[in-house]
Amino acid sequence: MAKRYAVIGLGRFGASLAQELTGAGQHVLAVDVDADRVDELAAVLPRVVRADGTDPAVLRALRIHEFDTVVVAIGDNVESSVLTVLNCRDLGVPYLVAQAQDEAHGRILKRLGVDRVVYPQRDMGIRVASNIATGGIIDYVRLSDEYGLAELAPPRSVLGKSLRDLDLPHRFGLNVMAIKRGQRVIVSPRAEERIAEGDIMVVIGSAAGITRLQGE
User: Fold this and answer.
1) pTM of the model
2) What is the pLDDT of residues 169-179, one digit of tens each?
């Protein structure tokens, strides 16, 4: 069942998020104070409006509290970010995500009761560094300082072996969530599943374990 999302702030991160959610079949309201930005994105987003999130009356008129999740994607203006978050909290938004530009901004957002703080610029840097350091990693999502979710091309040493033989949980502290094989996705693969050339493994676990697996 599709959920309702509101994304307030349509910079690079906010616009990309709104488009991804829309593409995934979710109901998305995209909001920005810049009329030119709203006009630009109207061609690719079904519902985009010009509105100022720092004005509680405006958010109330948008019935912002009725959305399942609201994302405050204002990373370049701390004052606007904080005011918008406060308005969302006062209006009873059930789940609030906010973008932070740095750790200090993030601490403020957490103190304001934001359910999840995201750091797009920092996490992109970690992702790029991971790709450079370990060439087999296709994508990496940081879950915490120590753990992450990675899509990776399996090293040649694991090809033809079953997940049982590889024993990744004990050897590397990793669990295989899925295997992408061409157009097919094998979710929660069985222990008997063998890794084939061209497969993409989706694993979750420690960043150190992911790096060690790539060094096999």
Assistant:
1) 0.61
2) 999 999 998 99
